[in-house]
Amino acid sequence: MAEMARTRPVAVQVDTALRLVVPDGSGVPVQATLRYEPTDPYAVHVIFCADLADGDDPEPSVAWSFARDLLLTGLTEPAGMGDVRVWPWTGQDGQVVALALSSPDGHALFEVPTATLDDFLQRSYAEVPAGEEPSYVDLDAVVTELLRA
User: Fold this and answer.
1) Which residues are paired to 83 by β-bridges?
2) Long-range pairs for 25-30: beta carbons < 8 A, 24 or more residues apart
3) What are the DSSP calls for 26-89, one per residue?
4) What's the whole-number mean pLDDT along residues 9-37?
5) In this structure, how many other beta carbons lie within 10 angstroms of the beta carbon of residue 117?
6) Phi and psi angles of residue 40, each rounded to the nearest 5 degrees, phi first
7) Do you know which Pfam families this protein is assigned to (predicted)?
8) Which of 49, 67, 96, 98 has a CA 20 to 30 Å removed from the CA of 80?
9) Residue 22 pLDDT > 50, yes or no?
């Protein structure tokens, strides 16, 4: 019997509500999208959506990109340094993952539902398994992009 060819991996996207932790310890819900693109196999993207009136489609307002393995490590132990840090944490609603983002414009601490993040990562690793990322990098496209600059 002939082997079935693996289908081309697809993007993984999860819309979720994060909790922005404010200085008094309370939280503000923030709509966000977790996105993984097999064409950028080492990275994940968190896209924070603007707060719009009911009935409007959310428009991306801020996007952060960082290493996929940083999120995976952050599920079970502190990971990252500098602009992006991730660690398991007990929040107001139980076990969550803390996501701390820093930029010259300020700092933000978010609580990410652990189950949502774990599901997202499992789906991304099902598309591009750990260690197989180099097979999905289009070096010609990278060189072309670098030469454009």
Assistant:
1) none
2) 27/91, 27/92, 27/111, 30/110
3) -EEEEEEEEEE-TTSTTEEEEEEEP---TTSPP-EEEEEEEEHHHHHHHTTS-EEETTEEEEEE
4) 92
5) 23
6) -125, 70
7) SsgA (PF04686)
8) 49
9) yes
Tell me the per-residue pLDDT of 60-116, one tens digit each, with 9 for 90 and over.
578 999 999 999 999 999 999 989 999 999 987 789 999 999 999 889 999 999 999
Domains for the chain: give ranges and CATH numbers. Answer: 12-130+138-143 (2.30.31.20)
Q: How confident is the model at residue 53 (pLDDT cuts 50, 70, 90)?
A: low
Please give the Cα distance from 99 to 11 (Å, whole number). Answer: 22
Helix (H, G, I), strand (E, B) or coil at 134: helix
Distance CA 128, CA 57 (A): 30
DSSP class of residue 2 equals P
